[in-house]
């Protein structure tokens, strides 16, 4: 059933797996802000077999259409999002890196995805699996296009942004703008990424991983700094300040009424998440009219648990998607149901 | 007993209250790093009556010898640190704002305070009340000069720095260095202050105080951003990047063996403190050989609770210092003792 070039039990999947798909953005397309995008097209990538249920996967602001680049353990043949059984669509978030001054919403991202589905002649997705930013887009998609979604799995994402997360992201945006203003944008991106990385993780993880060994002189890095500097440097060229500002702002602008998310909904939240407090995941679950399941779990990885807690997230995905594959649910699901 | 120019029931105390005292830093004085200070003197300020027990107060990195500027509710006539009854010494942390490249430790700060006590011909302090950075200096002072301290009250301060706090401060230091490098130091100080302010507070406070109202366009401030921008701007000229880097680094370099703190010790910690986790306050209390009392409390203010929780901190100070004033302990102390 699966095309041999797209699947195979190899892990991680070949980055080149899949084929690009695109939808022209009509001239008349306006963002909720009233603005327009310079981009001519929405670009996605279809992974997996030629037929089968259609699953959209969407991740954090640094994710994109190459699912293998950001969620290779989840999206693979035989994996929780099973490339042997499902067609998996991922897509690039807009704006592109060269567009400045864009005010975009998660609903706009959902509308752009709808354009892509139109171009693919797909009336609906069987499941939308979104984590972090992608979870927000999934909620916005479910609210805006209730007839086009079979079910939603929202991981490390809620219906609203928390003011403390806005505080952290606001400083990142001002840092990005400052560095760009200084003509040293890549350094600003690296430094903002350092800051962001701390918010993605937990103090407990840092305490376990990093010794407090002081450097020779003030201003030099401690072990935890070496790690952050490294993560920042690796990201310096990954995005532009303008694109990051637009996506960061859209997270803070994100607000979806839980009652509008009418499809079957699985919410996965982590008690250590400092960007999406577990209380917000609980509130989303409590107010959604068609909750399948709320899974809340501890994790030493905080917001990044959606990337790191393979066992728990994998089982949650498997359980949510197994009806699409006509497979039995996992022990986890049976235990929780018991 | 009190000099009328120095005290009075007015609140806050007159900023000009007290008199400056200073100690020349000997040529031979070397920092633990082996370096020297450009500063010629340690400058302190004595508040309160001419006689009475001597209480040192030391606060955060932005505190200094004018106690009224940073702890006016605590240090005042009739207050928890009672200017009617105690002589109160505060001092300026070194390095000064024009010194670059200084690697200083909390033990160095304690040694500089010892110079000041020598100049005042004071063999010992009756009590050292230190909060945040000042608490670290107090711990270092108690360890380095056990014969020169009657008791220590350490608030929102522990014997070591937490790697997550180092992570936050490290990003601030690199941001300060970056802005200085760009020739826009004051803007860097403001932005680093914004970041620091978030670490001083809690998500719960931000959620209560700030609406999620989005601005017109991406890059513009949300309500929580307005607050942070305001706090940053107010601090832009308060310090230099170099001085902040030195003091910030010295917090991460801070490491005092709890067993070396042999004087009677009161530890006050807040469960919401994200820079000094309550576990570290507990560990300090558990391992100190002469613990008077560990007070741990919730607060919506996180690390800044030492500035904001007037009732609890005030009572803790009163209880610790009342034997010096020969006053009865408060209800709080009796309740805890019961």
Question: Any overview of this molecule?
Answer:
The structure is a homodimer of 338-residue chains. Chain A contains 12 helices and 10 strands. With 338 residues, chain A is α/β, with parallel strands linked by helices. Chain A folds into 2 domains: 18-160 and 254-337, Alpha/Beta hydrolase fold, catalytic domain (Rossmann fold, 3-Layer(aba) Sandwich); 163-250, Rna Polymerase Sigma Factor, Chain: A (Orthogonal Bundle), CATH 1.10.1740.110. In chain A, the strands form 2 sheets. Chain A has an 8-stranded mixed beta sheet, sandwiched between helices. Chain A has a two-stranded parallel ribbon with strand order 4-5. In chain A, α3 links the parallel β7 (127-131) and β8 (152-155). The first copy, chain A, is globular. The two termini of chain A are 35 Å apart. Residues 1-11 of chain A have low confidence and may be disordered. At the A-B interface, α4, α5, α6, α7 and α8 of A face α4, α5, α6, α7 and α8 of B.
Set out the fold topology:
The structure is a homodimer of 338-residue chains.
Chain A (H helix, E strand, L loop, with lengths): L18 E6 L16 E7 L6 E5 L8 H5 L3 E2 L4 E2 L4 E5 L14 H14 L7 E5 L1 H12 L7 E4 L7 H19 L3 H16 L2 H7 L13 H13 L5 H13 L11 E6 L7 H10 L3 E7 L7 H4 L1 H16 L5 H7 L1
Parallel strand pairs in A: 3-6, 3-7, 4-5, 7-8, 8-9, 9-10
Antiparallel strand pairs in A: 1-2, 2-6
Helix pairs in contact in A: 2-3, 4-5, 4-8, 5-7
């Amino acid at each position: 059933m699966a095309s041999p070039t797209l699947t195979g039990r190899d892990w991680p999947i070949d980055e080149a797996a899949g084929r690009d798909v695109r939808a022209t953005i009509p001239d008349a397309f306006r963002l909720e802000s009233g603005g327009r995008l310079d981009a001519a097209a929405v670009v996605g990538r279809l992974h997996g077999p030629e037929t089968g249920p259609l699953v959209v996967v969407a991740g954090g602001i640094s994710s994109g259409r190459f699912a293998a680049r950001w969620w290779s353990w989840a999206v693979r043949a035989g994996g929780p999002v099973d490339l042997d059984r499902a067609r998996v669509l991922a897509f690039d978030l807009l704006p592109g890196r060269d567009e400045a001054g864009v005010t975009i919403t998660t609903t706009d991202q959902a509308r752009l995805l709808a354009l892509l589905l139109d171009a693919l002649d797909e009336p609906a997705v069987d499941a939308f699996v979104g984590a972090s930013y992608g979870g927000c887009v999934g909620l916005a998609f479910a609210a805006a296009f209730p007839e086009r979604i079979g079910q939603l799995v929202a991981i490390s994402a809620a219906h609203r942004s928390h003011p403390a997360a806005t505080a952290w992201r606001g400083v990142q945006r001002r840092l990005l703008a400052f560095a760009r203003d200084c003509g040293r944008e890549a350094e600003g991106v690296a430094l903002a990424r350092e800051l962001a990385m701390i918010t993605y993780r937990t103090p407990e993880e840092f305490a376990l991983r990093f010794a407090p060994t002081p450097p020779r002189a003030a201003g030099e890095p401690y072990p935890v700094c070496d790690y952050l500097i490294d993560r920042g440097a690796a990201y310096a060229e990954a995005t532009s300040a303008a694109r990051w500002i637009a996506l960061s702002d859209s997270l803070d602008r994100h607000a979806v009424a839980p009652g509008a998310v009418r499809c079957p909904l699985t919410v996965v939240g982590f008690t250590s998440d400092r960007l999406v407090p577990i209380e917000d995941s609980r509130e989303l679950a409590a107010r959604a009219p068609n909750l399948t399941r709320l899974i809340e779990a501890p994790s030493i990885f905080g917001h990044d648990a959606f990337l790191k807690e393979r066992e728990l997230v994998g089982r949650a995905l498997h359980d949510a998607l197994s009806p699409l594959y006509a497979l039995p649910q996992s022990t986890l699901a049976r235990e929780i149901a018991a």
